[in-house]
Prior knowledge:
Largest sheet: none
Distance between the termini: 62 Å
Low-confidence stretches: 202-212
Order of helices and strands: HHHHHHHH
Helix content: 55-70%
Strand content: under 5%
Amino acid sequence: xxxxxDAPTRREQILKEAARLFAERGFHGVGVDEIGxxxxxxxxxxxxxxxxxxxxxxxxxxxxxxxxxxxGRMRAAEAAGGPAAVLGSLIDGHIDxxxxxxxxxxxxxxxxxxxxxxxRKAVRRLQRxxxxxxxxxxxxxxxxxxxxxxxxxxxxxxxxxxSTPHLGTGGLPGRTATGELLRxxxxxxxxxxxxxxxGAQDRAPDSAPATG
Length: 212
């Protein structure tokens, strides 16, 4: 989700290759020497940047959670046009992540439990804050939607968008077309949520019967 255009640092290069290798072969299936070779330095040279593989994994998973939350907050603050525009911007930002950082999605799904307890708790805390950011916007857009239902819908849309590692390569029409498809599906899910909430509101009985 980053918008930076300058060249990545050596540390960022190491993390990118570590994410790719961890996603392909699993955390325990990759050695420090292999990560070093992928960026053109010796395995021991990695220790100038990271204490070890555990530190790389922690920075990958805590780091992407921080990026998503910070990016979401920035989009919410900068979007003009009310909650619909904010939600659209949040969806766009998460689609960028889902298309550009597929290895991180795989690593998160497989390796989160390998983090030490404090790092795992940090990831969960950041993720909860990110979810609540979306829930707030969804309920502003669809005020009749119960909070629990809005939260479930947000998690469902995340599941949809984060499915990119499972899409394969044969049927993908390209990044732009895939992004547009994900965008339509995500917006459609939230529009259906709003229609369901509005219909329930229309069908609700009067709160107090007339008396005479």
